[in-house]
Amino acid sequence: MPKRTDIHKVLIIGSGPIIIGQACEFDYSGTQACKALRKLGYEIVLVNSNPATIMTDPETADVTYIEPLNVERLEQIIAKERPDALLPNLGGQSGLNLCAELNKAGVLDKYNVKVIGVQVDAIERGEDRVEFKEAMDKLGIEMARSEVAYSVEDGLAIADKLGYPVVLRPAYTMGGAGGGLVYNKEELKSVIARGLQASLVGQVLVEESILGWEELELEIVRDAEGNMITVCFIENIDPLGVHTGDSFCSAPMLTISEECQKRLQEQAYKIVDSVQVIGGTNVQFAHDPVSDRIVVIEINPRTSRSSALASKATGFPIALVSAMLAAGLTLKDIPCGKYGTLDKYVPDGDYVVIKFARWAFEKFKGVEDKLGTQMRAVGEVMSIGKTYKEAFQKAIRSLEIGRSGLGHAKNFDTLTKDQLLQQLVTPSSERHFLMYEALRKGATIEEIFELTKVKPYFIEQMKELVDEEEELLTYKGGLPADELLISAKKDGFSDKYISQILEIPEEEIRNRRIALGVEEAWEGVHVSGTEDRAYYYSTYNALDKNPVSTEKPKIMILGGGPNRIGQGIEFDYCCVHASLALKKMGFETIIVNCNPETVSTDYDTSDKLYFEPLTLEDVLSIYKKEQPVGVIAQFGGQTPLNLAADLEKNGVKILGTAPSVIDLAEDRDLFRAMMEKLEIPMPESGMATTVEEAIAIAEKIGYPVMVRPSYVLGGRGMEVVYDEESMVGYMKAAVGVTPDRPILIDRFLNHAMECEADAISDGTNAFVPAVMEHIELAGVHSGDSACILPSEHISEKNLETIKEYTRKIAEEMHVKGLMNMQYAIEGDKVYVLEANPRASRTVPLVSKVCNIRMVPLATEIITAELTGKPSPVPALKEKAIPYYGVKEAAFPFNMFQEVDPVLGPEMRSTGEVLGLSASYGEAFCKAQEAVQAKLPLSGTLLISVNRKDKAEVVEVAKAFAENGFRILATKHTYQLISEAGIPAEQVKKLCEGRPNVLDLITNGKIDIVVNSPVGKDSVHDDSYLRKAAIKAKIPYHTTIAAARAAAEGIHYIKNHECSEVKSLQELHKEIHDK
């Protein structure tokens, strides 16, 4: 079938900010769809609220809207752009839900928009638990026994019938949000109440527990003629009971019989055919190895996290093909060098792919590290090897959690067998590391299987690795026997791990194995739908099949590895842009990365992709093979920077800012000396390695102080300390953070405005496109603070100072490429907080708001020594930007019910959104709306603040009163407000009797909460207020600064008509020279 000619303009909905359960795999699928559809000649309109993605770049679609994802905003866009069709199945759960809501609201019919790729009723059949069950019954496909509850009472009655434990699944949610496994009536009551609230339609499925069964997934692609292929069979190695997003998985299935795989495929085809999805669908099954029962768990009629994994595991670009199929092509129409046409595709790779998740439990105090049916992972890695053992060990060293192998994690090797088995009772992020030590201590395969229900095959493989390691350990202090070293390398043991357990330098291992002729070889994974494109993985178990070209000079870009809090998609954005820019300049580009969710691991982002861990061993092997003229390390966040110095020692040419300069910026003493030389002020500070030193320094500087370990990204281990007692506590806890590196102590700037500037520097000149002003005051991590760009409240004089300081520092440090500077303004004096001579997480934000291609410009500077081109910096002119962008962070607190959602110096947001408008107030409101915290224009405000904020509380209360809000306040806050003559009513705190504030929030009597935490000095914890606000989905502000911004925003919206939506391309046309 040819492409559809009845549609010309297609609207694509993105997935919004990155949250747990919905990460950058949708940036990858959306970007691919834009590529495919534009190639077919369609005009693309893209809507997404996330500024950090490649997909919201003005070049990706024809028209780009960075707007909140809700029905009102989309109706404005549809009315203005008049698209013929909407493609909703590439924007994750957000895209699907929004499509269903637009349909219900009648917007699609009103503007005559056709939905392509997936029918609206199919979304309902896939997502609505009742409809899905009815559809399965018709097809004669078994599901777990279950019934739907619309109230807590229903739930209790159903659970009694099925027998506990039962699993609760709310309809229309993702990442298992609001659901869970419950063992008794009390648990059921609290979880089901949360679930009914989380569901779009107020229904929760109560189903029998099939814990411990095998969880198996199939990725199916179907076209308009009903042809279907199975792209990938995925086996979850962790059994049912752990969310698939947290499960450790393999592709292909390693322990499932051919006959069983056939049955799964037949059922999957029946389901996908009945739902009539065009494009990719993920179908999840459970299989009981004892009774051989197969039940279908759920389907996702859209590209998902699993489809990103399946794409990268097999080389079949699901999102790209899905978009082409949605446009009317069929599988027979798409040619492929390997299969002729895609309808003949079969998954036939002779390698093993492993996916392992990355968590962030250390960021959330009070959260238990345990895995269940609600997703907890913030990122993942994928590794490819010839054998299960090789792929598994490669996955572990890809994670970047300071482990090069499975053994000796934390203190696990000091525990007894019984203690280890005890810890295996509940699944946790440490499960496989615990299993390894338990096997070393003599636990049997049977014992571990009983506790974990991980299949014996996988435990046996692990046991063989343990035995091999024990044999290596007999050679401690020297090199192992040659044949043992060779077999260890074939089983995936890394050079670094062998060197750690034998206590000899890594270099000795490397030199010995090279002398023995044991070196990495590479094999290609063919990309389906292309003539002969491939990407490569390394193995020690095969001959090298990796052709190297020598036509053009090559440059290698090191990627950012797995997503995590503090290092997310922004760094992937930088790597992708660097690769595209280098291609234009005539270089051959090589990307090394191991994150399956991203655009950088898409086969055509670079000329050659290595799907490999970012470790010294793997990168050096590739360097030796490819012989690039240089390596770029400044775009992938902390990951490549940690490697840069070691690579340089091994003769690798690092382009751009020298690794020694990056070290200089991290070394507080050297950096301070440099600031003194340049006469640039910094907050007073000191370094301490013992409790006594720390107390002495803090007394000299004066409390409060900010303490943190050196060399971290995302503010890990940072805290504001108010007194000696807390300082002692911090120092005791901080021992393990960085053994040979001291703790840094700085004077905490009180009530200071924090701001940052990104700069492009060529070593002698630096250009600052705009200064970003943080809404939250100093002390909140820059990644978590809302920020305004260009700034609104900084004086001209201070802006000039900031730009001048940035230029001076860039010049003094000889920064070549990008850098990010953090400043604080206290009482009209600008202080430097830190310098980061590398790409930072604000690069995509500044690039989009200011319409400046920061990464391509930086790439030109970095390669100038090779190309001899003059620097682009002197020609850059400051522009007047006639609108504002407000960035707001998206937090995972709704997934971590037990965490107090207070902001501090440790970063805890997973993603971000951007609000754009000609007015700062409206831009702030839009940003709040985009993180699902739409500000009310009237109603009741609850205000309760700590002593430190008493001074400014009156001003905030006054602003809300003028906006017509009814004000409720707790005792001390109430006294202050009423003394100032502002009408308010007093309410009780939790400890003061009832009815209290918690009752009011729970009963929905409050529309917005302003509550700054009381801090450690209070007897009564007030975190319940903030947790209750999240539960009730009420906008809440934990800082006076944010509350002030909210009042300003509400005031603006009440007094002005809602401005028309403008695309990024239109806004960019308004920018003019100063």
Index terms:
single chain; 1074 residues; alpha/beta; 7-stranded antiparallel sheet; 37 helices; 44 strands
Sheet of most strands: 8 strands, antiparallel
| Outline type | globular
Portion of residues within helices: 25-40%
Mean pLDDT: 92
* Structural classification: alpha/beta
The tally of strands reads 44
Task: Tell me the strand percentage band.
Answer: 15-25%
C-alpha termini separation: 53 Å
**Rg, Å, rounded:** 28 Å
What is the count of DSSP helices, taking H or I runs of 4+ residues?
A: 37
Unreliable spans are none
Itemize the secondary structure elements and their pairings.
Layout: E1 9-13, H1 25-39, E2 43-47, E3 63-65, H2 71-81, E4 85-87, H3 92-104, H4 107-110, E5 114-115, H5 120-127, H6 129-139, E6 146-149, H7 152-162, E7 166-170, E8 180-182, H8 185-198, E9 204-208, E10 214-222, E11 228-236, E12 249-251, H9 258-275, E13 279-287, E14 294-300, H10 305-314, H11 318-326, E15 335-336, E16 340-341, E17 352-358, E18 379-385, H12 388-398, H13 417-423, H14 431-440, H15 445-452, H16 456-473, H17 482-490, H18 495-502, H19 506-515, E19 521-526, E20 534-539, E21 554-558, H20 569-584, E22 588-593, E23 608-611, H21 616-626, E24 630-632, H22 638-649, E25 654-655, H23 659-666, H24 668-678, E26 685-688, H25 691-701, E27 705-709, E28 719-721, H26 724-733, E29 743-747, E30 753-762, E31 766-767, E32 771-777, E33 787-789, H27 796-813, E34 816-826, E35 829-836, H28 843-850, H29 854-862, H30 864-867, E36 879-880, E37 884-890, E38 911-917, H31 920-930, E39 940-944, H32 950-962, E40 966-970, H33 971-979, E41 985-987, H34 997-1002, E42 1008-1011, H35 1023-1031, E43 1036-1037, H36 1040-1055, H37 1064-1070, ...
Parallel strand pairs: 1-2, 1-4, 2-3, 4-5, 21-22, 21-24, 22-23, 24-25, 39-40, 39-42, 40-41, 42-43
Antiparallel strand pairs: 6-9, 7-8, 7-9, 10-11, 10-13, 11-12, 12-17, 13-14, 15-16, 17-18, 19-20, 26-29, 27-28, 27-29, 30-31, 30-32, 30-34, 32-33, 33-37, 34-35, 36-44, 37-38
